Amino acid sequence: MFDKISDGFKSAINKIRMKDDEKALKKALDELKKNLLKADVHFKVVKDLLREVEVETKKAGIGKANFLKALDKTLTKILTAPGNYGFVYASKPPTVVLMTGLQGSGKTTTTAKLANYLKEFKKKKVLMVAADLQRLAAVEQLKQLAEQNGLDIFYDENSKDPVDIAKRGVEEAKEKFYDVVLIDTAGRLAIDDELMNELIKIKNEVNPHEIFYVADSLTGKDALNTAKQFDEKLDITGVILTKYDGDSKGGVALSIAHQVGKPLRFIGTGEKVQDIEVFVPERIVSRIMG
Ligand code: GDP
What we know:
alpha/beta, eight-stranded mixed beta sheet, 11 helices, 8 strands, 52% helix, elongated, binds guanosine-5'-diphosphate
């Protein structure tokens, strides 16, 4: 999954053969820069990473081992924004989660993926709430996903008010002792005030513990920009990156925490309900460094 980035790191590491060779360090850093930019890592992330790796390596003494250590440390730092990692439960159930994102980002699919993950692997009682009343087929899609995977859903086909649906969904979860409520909200093709106002209203009504922004990794830099805009309005608590299986470059995963300032929490790796991975920075760093 991180093959391209991993290859870039390895070819940079191989440039350092001798000790105390400034020229070799420069070559390695140049190689790293070239490969990271090719993998679509944001230029500011590349700049910070190179600067820090250079300083750390020189401080410890130029050599392969110190270069590797500096890379490991810097990469972990870049991937780690302050906040929660994995799925974090509220002290008093139900944990209320708003799923937000643009239309087509994979929000509805990810809602079902997350519900399935929490049910199957964490043995939690999870309720999905169909509050995306914007896209005509969204409620039907979530109903089908619920049926196919034995997941619980709250919906009301007669309601036109997503704020009311979200509120009633959370009430239902409280009454029936659910551990987690995942609210699938509406998206748009682009950010507009109407969408944001609806989301802010839902947020104010249900007071969520987590607000996840679902971003399509295939949209590259746009994924970062829209995540930032959602964060400004909603103060999101994490990002879920979808369609990573189709992203041949992969750099956006490396840029999110650094550029948005919020942690990447999960990665979508396919169309099936099981295709979701928890994002743990240290684990990803060891995969990238091989
Ligand atoms: P929404 O409009 O944001 O609710 O988007 P959907 O959940 O309907 O997803 C849009 C399309 O993306 C669907 O065809 C999904 O199957 C697909 N999709 C979602 N997540 C992933 C993923 O991680 N990998 C792949 N390959 N496809 C995905």
